[in-house]
Amino acid sequence: MPELPEVESLATFLRERAVGHAFVRADITAISALKTYDPPISAMVGLLIDGVERHGKFLDISAQGVHLVIHLARAGWLRWKEEQSTGLVRPGKGPIALRTVLDDGAGFDLTEAGTQKKLAVYVVRDVAEVPGIARLGPDPFTLSIEDFGDILKRAGRVQLKGVLRNQSVIAGIGNAYSDEILHVAKMSPFKPASNLSADELQTLYDAMRETLQDAVDRSAGLAVQDLKSEKKSGLRVHGRKGQKCPVCGDIVREVSFADSSLQYCATCQTGGKPLADRRMSKLLK
């Protein structure tokens, strides 16, 4: 799933390539992806793109008071083309959910792999009309350590992993980067959020900001098609079950849940003690 660093990189790319150009086509080909009806998607045609912003994991393309808001979900992606096809895409056929064409002939497709179609597109006049944006917590890059400490205290016995990836608590961090942040901080994903000392709070706060900023910096200047591979190559433990921890050389372990999993290093994070597999747990949903 694209998280804060990838969406930030997409926003930066579109600011450089799309701002100042007008939509000449905006075709929804997966009806289930479009979550709004007023304004219609056709309202984007003819409008000049004047800004691109990120809200958590949401991408916000603004055009003269109308916003095309995109959430790529687990398997969605944005594919940029310098010479976009002008052919019609048959609804319900293939991975393309939205096709756009700009006035210079470039454009992008939104695609989604797999059978679980959760990619979401909104056309709104105010981004606060998007329920997911209205519920977002603060952005990690604007969050002070004092406010971060208050968030963890209010979370009580909720596990750190669950707090970090809860979009209503902190916006933009998902399953992958929460694993990475906790590995950098050398903390168990199951550690209760309110059980941190002042030094541990500082360590986790620094790990969160540095891990995310490092991922953003690594993606700077990359073409859109290279962002996924850059994310994967830069991960230390997430998605690396059975491989060696890059810090200590221990084997990266995994805990499975009903619909997700986490990866960690027992030596670095849990004092050498493997965590129990909680496949049926609902704690980290």
UniProtKB/TrEMBL annotation:
<keyword id="KW-0479">Metal-binding</keyword>
<dbReference type="Pfam" id="PF06831">
    <property type="entry name" value="H2TH"/>
</dbReference>
<keyword id="KW-0456">Lyase</keyword>
<dbReference type="GO" id="GO:0003684">
    <property type="term" value="F:damaged DNA binding"/>
</dbReference>
<dbReference type="GO" id="GO:0034039">
    <property type="term" value="F:8-oxo-7,8-dihydroguanine DNA N-glycosylase activity"/>
</dbReference>
<keyword id="KW-0238">DNA-binding</keyword>
<dbReference type="GO" id="GO:0140078">
    <property type="term" value="F:class I DNA-(apurinic or apyrimidinic site) endonuclease activity"/>
</dbReference>
<keyword id="KW-0227">DNA damage</keyword>
<dbReference type="InterPro" id="IPR000214">
    <property type="entry name" value="Znf_DNA_glyclase/AP_lyase"/>
</dbReference>
<keyword id="KW-0378">Hydrolase</keyword>
<comment type="similarity">
    <text>Belongs to the FPG family.</text>
</comment>
<keyword id="KW-0234">DNA repair</keyword>
<keyword id="KW-0326">Glycosidase</keyword>
<keyword id="KW-0511">Multifunctional enzyme</keyword>
<protein>
    <submittedName>
        <fullName>Formamidopyrimidine-DNA glycosylase</fullName>
        <ecNumber>3.2.2.23</ecNumber>
        <ecNumber>4.2.99.18</ecNumber>
    </submittedName>
</protein>
<dbReference type="GO" id="GO:0006284">
    <property type="term" value="P:base-excision repair"/>
</dbReference>
<keyword id="KW-0862">Zinc</keyword>
<dbReference type="GO" id="GO:0008270">
    <property type="term" value="F:zinc ion binding"/>
</dbReference>
<dbReference type="InterPro" id="IPR035937">
    <property type="entry name" value="FPG_N"/>
</dbReference>
<dbReference type="InterPro" id="IPR012319">
    <property type="entry name" value="FPG_cat"/>
</dbReference>
<dbReference type="Pfam" id="PF01149">
    <property type="entry name" value="Fapy_DNA_glyco"/>
</dbReference>
<feature type="domain" description="FPG-type">
    <location>
        <begin position="236"/>
        <end position="270"/>
    </location>
</feature>
<dbReference type="InterPro" id="IPR015886">
    <property type="entry name" value="H2TH_FPG"/>
</dbReference>
<dbReference type="InterPro" id="IPR010979">
    <property type="entry name" value="Ribosomal_uS13-like_H2TH"/>
</dbReference>
<dbReference type="Pfam" id="PF06827">
    <property type="entry name" value="zf-FPG_IleRS"/>
</dbReference>
<dbReference type="InterPro" id="IPR010663">
    <property type="entry name" value="Znf_FPG/IleRS"/>
</dbReference>
<feature type="domain" description="Formamidopyrimidine-DNA glycosylase catalytic">
    <location>
        <begin position="2"/>
        <end position="87"/>
    </location>
</feature>
<keyword id="KW-0863">Zinc-finger</keyword>
